[in-house]
Design a protein that fits this description.
Length: about 270
Amino acid sequence: MASNSQTSSFTATIEKIGRSTVTAIEEIGNGGALIFESLYWLVMGRRLRQPVRLPSIFQQMMEIGIHAIPIVALMAATIGVMLAIQGIHTLRIFGAESRVTIGIALSITREFAPLITGILVAGRSGSALAARIGTMKINQEIDALYVMGINPVRFLVVPALLGTVIMVPCLTFFSDIVGLFAAGLYVNAELSISMAAYFDEVREILNTDHLMHGLSKSAIFAVLIAVIGVVNGAAVTGGAEGVGRVTTRAVVQSISAIVVTDMIFAFVVTR
């Protein structure tokens, strides 16, 4: 009896792993198809007399980008000051605290600004996108779009995807500026280095490659956030409870994908 119970438990575990693997592969495939279909409508929509509506794109840009400025500024400033505090504390051991600007400038522009911006947008806008798509599916609004001859990808997905891809790099650049400025204020107060001298050193350290490293990563993060939000929202089942479930799932998957992608990107580019 004990042997049969252990066998059944093992079989159930294997089946669960198999189902999860199949589901993950299906979602990756759906995400890839969604990207290609979005590009198709973006390029061919006007020729087919179903162009992507600019007001919808601007609305998504406002919701994703402009409305997120306060929280991004707060988090960027916090990260900048935190890096300055920890950098000065660590370098003081070697008597080299005056060189803290190097670590601050590179860390913010290459890693922390795109990472924290991506996570904030995933939690704020990725969840909202998944909830909106999920609610529309539960209420059969997506089916209604098909009945009216409106492609849901063109009408719902492309504006969100394009707005995210445009605004996340913009927010990342804004985060770079705020983080560097906040760190400079702390360095000025702690080490008596003037802001002019601090930014002169920042300009000497940073170049276009450093900025593009962070901005290009943020564009990839933007695609992941939008696609994961849509895929999860479209897979909703079970009414309002299901919408909450896929919203949480979209946030967790987006943040996980951002962190893993950041690690892979850093490993490939910096080697």
